[in-house]
Amino acid sequence: MTTIASNLQVVRTAISAAAVLAGRSAGDISLLAVSKTFAAEEIRRAYLAGQTRFAESYLQEALEKLAVLQDLNIEWHFIGPIQSNKTRAVAEHFAWVHSVDRLKIAERLSAQRPLHLPPLQICLQVNISHEASKSGVSVGEVPELAKVIAGLPNLALRGLMAVPAPSEVYAEQRAAFAQLREIFDGLNRQGMGLDTLSMGMSHDFTAAIAEGATMVRVGSAIFGERIY
Predict the structure, then answer these.
(1) Which of 22, 135, 138, 211 would bridge 177 by S-S if both were Cys, CB 3.0 to 4.6 A apart?
(2) pLDDT digits (tens, 9 = 90+) for 113-146
(3) What is the largest CA-CA distance in the chain?
């Protein structure tokens, strides 16, 4: 078994254990392998070990990998910041975008999504920890932005994503994820019909699952430490 395959097995086992602790079904939690900075051949190894959902943050790097791996039935997710001049390529090549935080970006993705493709699946990125260095819509702006984006053609608003301030304290991790879940629940009480909470990474996905994550984004625990 390759290291990537064995790492995937460890991560899946940890997700299942976290789900049991939270009184949830592991089948309700999707694993998104964050493959940014890792080579196409490493993605191929993960795919051969049964992983089909991958996430990228850097568009040019991602497009090169997509071309090399087009023989694989991969569901590609974009999770990085999106500049206006990059929206067309994102709209044309990805199934999901987790990092929408401005109406202008959503409108461009909607207009540029090819009509022969299914609607682009969208998560709003929320700046849950109010960090100036982080992307994401402010907490107070989420309800109005979600309402407008939900009405755009060629997009399907699925839920929320966040990257909280890093913490090694489990209670602090849970508190941040609980905030996102409360916003999510509030939107659904207004009839939004959201089903995706994209939260939790290699160091904190156990806390995220405890607070209702439906998709966890794991990179280094699968592929190893990144070298930028």
Answers:
(1) 211
(2) 999 999 999 999 999 988 777 789 999 999 999 9
(3) 48
Helix (H, G, I), strand (E, B) or coil at 52: coil
Please name the residue ranges forming H helices in the chain: 3-21, 40-48, 59-68, 87-93, 103-112, 142-150, 170-189, 205-210, 220-223
Instruction: Please give the class, per CATH, of domain 3-223.
Output: alpha beta
The ranges assigned to domains in the chain are 3-223
- Which residue, among 217, 174, 208, has the nearest Cα to 24 in the 3D structure? 208
Given a contact cutoff of 8 angstroms between Cβ atoms, the answer to whether 80 and 56 are in contact is yes
Q: Is 131:165 a contact under the CB 8 Å cutoff?
A: yes
> Which amino acid is it at 195?
D
* pTM of this structure: 0.96
CA pair distance 125, 147, nearest whole angstrom: 14
Look up residue 199 and give its amino acid: M
- Taking the alpha carbons at both ends of the chain, their separation in whole angstroms is 27
